[in-house]
Amino acid sequence: MMNREYIPKSPLGIAIIYILLGSVWVLFSDSMIEQIFKDIKIITALSIAKGWFFILCTGWLLYRLIKQSQKTLMTQNIALEVLGEERLASEEELRQQLDELLSREEEIRRQNLVLVSLNETALGLMNRLNSNELLRDIVVSAAKLINTPHGYVCLIDEEQGVCRRLIGTGAYEGETGRLDKLTDGLVGEVYRIGEIKMVDDYSTWEKRFTDPYFDNMHCTVQVPFKSEGKVFGTLGLSFAEPERKFTVSELDLLTRFAELASIALDNANLFTTYKNELIERRQTQKALQISQANYRAIFDAASDGIIVHDAATGEIIDSNQKVEELYGCSREEMISRGLDRLGNQQLPYSGDDALEWTRRAAVGKSQLFEWMIQRKNGESIWVEINLKNAEIAGRQCILSVIRDIRRRKRREIELHKIQSNNQALINAIPDNMFLIRCDGIIMDCKINCPHLYYLCSDEIIGESVFQVFQPNLAEQTMNAIVEAITRGKLQIYEFQMTKEQNQYYFEARIVPSGDEEVLAIVRDVTDRRQIEEKLAYLSHHDAMTGLYNRAYFEEEMRRMGAIRNVAAGIIICDLDGLKLVNDTLGHSMGDEVLKAVADVLKKAFRPKDLIARIGGDEFAILLPSNSRSAFKIACSRIHKLIEEYNGNRPIVPLSLSIGFAVTKETPTDMNALYKEADNYMYREKLQRHQSNKHTIVQALMSALEVRDFIAGGHGERMKELIVSLANAAGLPKQRREDLRLFAQYHDLGKVGISDEILFKPCPLTTEEFTIMKQHSEIGYRIAQATPDLEPISEWILKHHERWDGTGYPLGIEGDEIPVECRILSIVDSYDAMTNDRPQRKAMSHEAAIAELRKCAGSQFDPHLVELFIQLLD
């Protein structure tokens, strides 16, 4: 049976052995048998056995040949699969980046549309003063915002305990006028809790109404209208499609819309009340003017208090029933009062003021003012007093018409609060606003960006747009004003301005506000424009290197290939050893190497040449030329720049595999041209593969020597001590020589640890120590990549294992740890304790010996510790 160690490893060796054995067997076997044996039967039997033996040997050799070929093919298939997976990963990463960019762009566009729609809706609602029109606009606008035809509005009557459905659209259009109890249905839920309420499937909700048409509604929501924290109505919206649901953003939008609608409804109600009161007052005044002869009947029936004063003295002659109610005094008590006792003496006017008004009224000057009167019980109430001169029974008198305006005062306070809220809302909008007449005169404004205009904000009102804006912008604004008033439609345009060498972009919206004026809203969209430009840049460029990306490169290839009679050439560059750098020094260092390659390529070509990063470590240059000599010069230029870069001794040197192809005929098949250049590049990469990896490893070893913070004799001391201890432990000479190499490069993996951790002057944190422990695995991968260090790679991986099994990275214990690692652990610890480190000062020899004995059996091999102490003694 042949020893397995002497079985040839290659198909050529197997074939040579087969030929030699077969030739010897054929030439000499018969003569040897005839010389040894004389019996013809034995010779015949041996000849037959010889044939079968030759067949067995041939079969065995053929089996080895097939087995070796299968192993070679399997190795090649694995390499091809790894290359394919790397390319697929790169393509997936680019696809994810593009999807993220598209998603962010869509989110920005959707938010802008929502804000614009909400702003336009708010302006439309605030201009509605008719309640019915306002309610219909609320339903239609809300349905449009959420994109559903089904909506309605309910107003609540607390006295009767019902809610009345006033306006309906879609499926609710036929339910106008419907009355429901406040204790029933979804409206009742919202009235009780005072918050928005949503039901995912109304047809299955246990509290739903049993009307058949409700079964067609699925997801529905009720949003409350509030005034002073109290629910006075609701807005209902529904989806008939089972798959439609209200999103969180839609619910938030409806909540904000309901707040605006509540303000608009309060505004319309206050306007209606004030209008009714104004009509009522005018009717009363007209009634007093119709007939003075019947003044007593009107006098007592008037809804306002009336006091008759003598025009000369101011004394009270008469008063009506309403005055008695207002003051809480009888007619006789009122007549006994003087002017000083008719009002509150502190607020807001005194009796002298009242006497002066009476004198003015006596000479025919009507007086209208508000006053605070004092009732008999001491209560003060606000009234409106109208003083008018009149002749009654031939006597000059002053009629004081007193109207209780307590309710109106409350309404005015509420209206002022609403106006303050509206003003606060306008002030919160970060846009500039202008109220402009059709002739270009600015009536009012709110300025947030004063650098847009020629005049200060307090000088703008009353000026023309030509005095406020720059000439081209003023002319554009006037054209938009004319279009908005003439057509009655919103006008939108954008413009840009330069201020202190900075470019600003703005969007202007001109909307009609009456027949003769417009509201202009100017918004700063500089941030949005910059984001759009950045997204456009990222869609064509690689975010890391700033070069063009693969998508843009392929688009340019297709464009150039479609043009007839155009010369073209492609250079393909592949960065050698990127995976080794990423695995050992981390992806941040790999990114720096990629950026360095990008800088080299930018220097090697003109700014207008198309340079792209088309893969993780692949770059391509597309040039409009078919001169092979020009492409060879370009490749030489790249190599020269790489040599200059590597001459500065970077941590990781650059190595590029380069291939190119140029146009041979037209029209150009750009895909075939790219494939040809890629094939040339790949052949060069295969020829340089091992040498490139060796160069990178040598650079990492040099970096270790530069960055090693325990230089200053540490390596030499380690070599001497470790060899002495190995000799005492009985290790053979060859292993002692490997130990010298092990002593020098056991911390090779520290080139992959940041300087902040390596040189930190205080103890490491838990997270930092976790990172520091990775240097064993990093050093192992580096050593595996170079033949010089491959024999000690396993030692580098395990040199921080502990005798009790609590070490890292494998957690092995005792004799499972290679003896070389156990020797290095003792020597390295002793040298570290007796020399200064960034985190602490050196110990004495005696203290270090005591620490070694303390840790023997836990951290160190106890037998080797004793040998080492004997050596030191």
Offer a few descriptive terms.
16% strand; alpha+beta; disordered N terminus; 873 residues; 6-stranded antiparallel β-sheet; 6 domains; 28 helices; Beta-Lactamase
Helix content: 40-55%
> Which geometry do the CA atoms define?
elongated
State the total count of DSSP E strands.
Answer: 20
* Alpha carbon gap, first and last residue: 55 Å
Q: What's the tally of helices?
A: 28
Q: Uncertain runs with pLDDT below 50, 5 residues or more?
A: 1-7
Portion of residues in beta strands equals: 15-25%
As for the CATH topology of the largest domain, it is: Hypothetical protein af1432
Largest sheet: 6 strands, antiparallel
Strand order of the largest sheet: 3-2-1-6-5-4
